[in-house]
Design goal:
Length: about 180
């Protein structure tokens, strides 16, 4: 069951689900040039429906993502769910689709995987396997039993050619009451 959310002036958010609603709403609140990172279930990235990812790509540059193993939050939140950390940089102006590989998914037989992870499998800190889920079997990101999550996160490469001066800090306006991009 998908929860329908209604907010004046935001009809585009009515049928995207709760996780995605807050992701889109947070991005809408960030200043142009601002960075956003979001932890969400794998369904934001792996959903067959591309509406949310296409909207995000139109509003922000996709910088990358990291898929965490299903046990990443087991100790501190008592939950087992495959999660993604997604990084975006809000555009100065909405643009056209630029990084379609993360917007689309690929069919890998029994499950769908986001095109980004198909292209960059080393960004998944585990392997996708059919596991017994809370309610039914599901494909989850599974890491070895004694997996060092903090160590694995430290080992993630920064990228082949990280852009210089990607982020520009906000500067206070003369009145000091609002933030403007430089």
């Amino acid at each position: 069951m998908t929860l329908a959310i209604y907010e004046n002036g935001r009809a585009h958010l009515a049928d995207i689900g709760l996780h995605n609603y807050f992701f889109v709403k947070a991005l809408d609140q960030v200043r142009p040039g601002g960075l956003i990172s979001f932890i969400t279930s794998r369904f934001t990235m792996d959903s067959l429906e591309t509406k949310v990812r296409a909207y995000l790509d139109q509003m922000a540059s996709f910088l990358g993502a990291v898929r965490l193993p299903v046990t990443a939050f087991k100790k501190n939140a008592h939950t087992e769910v495959t999660t993604d950390i997604i990084f975006l940089l809000k555009r100065e102006q909405p643009g056209s689709l630029t990084t379609d590989y993360w917007v689309e998914t690929v069919n890998l037989g029994d499950y769908r995987l986001n095109g980004y992870y198909d292209r960059y499998p080393h960004m998944m800190l585990g392997e996708m396997q059919l596991e017994g889920g809370r309610y039914e079997d599901a494909f989850e990101c599974v890491a070895p039993k004694d997996f060092d999550l903090a160590g694995a996160l430290d080992e993630i490469p920064a990228g082949d050619d990280p852009p210089n001066n990607l982020y520009k800090p906000a500067v206070p306006s003369r009145a000091g009451s609002s933030w403007l991009s430089p």
